[in-house]
Amino acid sequence: MGYLVRRLEFFLVTLWAALTLNFILPRLLPGGPEVALRTRFHGRVSPGTIKSLEVALGIHTQQGQLQQYLEYLGNLLHGDLGVSLGFYPERVTQVIMVALPWTLGLVGMATVIAFVLGTLIGIFGAWRRGGLLDSVLPPVFVVISAFPYFWVGLICILLFSITLGWFPQAFGSSSEVTSELSLPYVLDVLWHSILPAFTIVLTSIGGWILTMRNNMITTLAEDYIRMARAKGLSPTRIMFQYAARNAILPNLVGFAMSLGFVISGALLVEIVFNYPGLGTFLLQAVNNEDFSLMQGLFLLITVAVLLAVVAADFLTAWLDPRTRERA
Amino acid sequence: MGESGCGKSTLLYAIAQLLNPPAWIAEGTVRFRGQDMVALGDEELRHWRWRECSVVMQSAMNALNPVLTVGAQLRDALQAHESLTSQKIQERSAEVMRLVGIDAVHLRSFPHQLSGGMRQRAMIAMALLFTPELVIMDEPTSALDVVAQRSLMLQIKDLQRRLGFAVLFVTHDMSLVSHFSDRLAVMYAGQVMELGLTRKVFDAPRHPYTVGLMQSFPSIAGERQELTGIPGSPPDLLKPPAGCRFHPRCPHVMTHCRTEEPAVVDVEGDLVRCHLYPDGQQSTVPLLSSVRPR
């Protein structure tokens, strides 16, 4: 119990530090929001309109830094991330809420699939060390994971979409299908997600296979595995309850981290496939000098990674009794 | 018994058929109640394990799964061989824990929450779940201090008397051997050099290596004598010496010792692997008195 409280304390302190950095960093950038705004509308609207826009967007240059900071924290508490400059007059939270489900669905599922599949291949590969599975899959996927995401994505589009015509080239869904919760729409979304998800799984599974396989091989040499064999336990029980159960522990934090980074989207994959997720929006925010959206997205990414790490800590505490009492 | 690296544990795990690759069974048999265990298939072997022959390992910290409670590890040994109700499992687990003097509340403990001695006891409790015929122990006490060692061995001896199982254990601790074993095999460089009743081997060692071992430790009751030890060091087993493996260090080395491997001969009930006993006869060389006093 004390362990969980300590982890929560750590989480809160880190969160506060991240929020503060997120406040400071954009203010250290040359230009800043008001310059961006002026450049964008320069010569097209009167100075008075710019002034009122600034007020509407919440860019009060007259305010002291401390006051701005307190206001920023207060707004965050209410879930208010301000107004997007690029998608004016949409609020940043609205923009994020549009893109979030797409990224969570695509990248989140792909990450989970890659982890589960990679872990299983690692377990079975190490169990039959030197067998067919073990000699073929790990080297192949390690080589593939060295390929850049976007390149694999482009090859996939060329092969499966343009040449074979099996899957759509881009976007999250077809324009002909209305976006409502109906079977044709869900199938359409799934159909559009297969190619980008495949690209993500293909390029990220190698790491999971390799680390899990190596952890397993180390664990299989432990005395308690020999003991389990001496006890006459069934091979599946030894493989999962004794070997994999211990071997997976070091990988959990890595998995949680990668889940956290899901929020930032597989940026390149989303751009290659023109997928309407957070990665695409992040790129647009940078291009548009949309400071409030950028800030909102960075905040979201930071919080997601932090939450994932805390979740991993809890999961480890649940799976590994030794961590529970560590001071 | 034998020095480190002589193959004691390897032999033990070979008997239990628990060696990992790259080890493999080149030849030989393991006879257990008239049956050859080497000839058994994996599944038959699995049923033999633990019911008839259990294992206690050197370091209980590493031999217990760190993420499962002691109770869970007793439970899966029971469930692997019998389908029992959870109440029966609980009863049997508590019973064996009491046998080794641990409170049954520790069934809910994880291995890291127990002391070294308790872990070793918990392992012995686990080994006794089915009251097997044979318990194989790989240096069961070497991770413990002398006090804990002694109480554990006394307890094993006591349980053995009550439950009637055989113990096959390896150690390099001479005092353990002399106090707790009935028969003794002395190993050197991967081979058994001498095998006989412990008392007899201690009183009248026949192999020059055994003689050297006996002169490497002081006797508490006997007269004062200079310890001599065995000069030289154990051979590299990747290229063992030709002929008798002990010949480079043997004080009685003869010319044919360097070329011919000695056969195992029966000398008055003791098995010895040495050229000093050509036809299973008593040696003409007085072994013990040949040690030069310094």
Description of the structure:
The complex is a heterodimer of chains A (327) and B (294). With 327 residues, chain A is mostly helical. Chain A has a domain at 107-280: MetI-like fold. Chain A contains 15 helices and no strands. The model of chain A has no long low-confidence stretch (mean pLDDT 82). Chain B has 10 helices and 9 strands. Residues 289-294 of chain B have low confidence and may be disordered. Chains A and B meet through helix 9 and helix 10 of A and helix 2 and helix 4 of B.
Strand and helix layout:
The complex is a heterodimer of chains A (327) and B (294).
Chain A: H1 2-28, H2 32-41, H3 47-57, H4 65-77, H5 92-127, H6 132-145, H7 149-163, H8 183-220, H9 223-230, H10 235-247, H11 249-260, H12 267-272, H13 278-287, H14 291-319, H15 321-324
Chain B: H1 8-16, E1 31-32, E2 35-36, H2 42-48, E3 53-56, H3 60-63, H4 70-81, H5 86-99, H6 116-127, E4 134-138, H7 146-163, E5 166-170, H8 174-180, E6 183-188, E7 191-197, H9 198-203, H10 208-214, E8 264-267, E9 270-273
Parallel strand pairs in B: 3-4, 4-5
Antiparallel strand pairs in B: 1-2, 6-7, 7-9, 8-9
Helix pairs in contact in B: 5-6, 6-7
What is the gist of this entry?
The complex is a heterodimer of chains A (327) and B (294). Chain A has 327 residues and is mainly α.
What series of H and E elements makes up the topology of chain A? Answer: HHHHHHHHHHHHHHH
Secondary structure: number of strands of chain B: 9
Shape of chain A: globular
Q: What is the approximate shape of chain B?
A: globular
Which structural class is indicated by helix and strand composition of chain A? mainly alpha
What is the mean pLDDT of chain B?
84
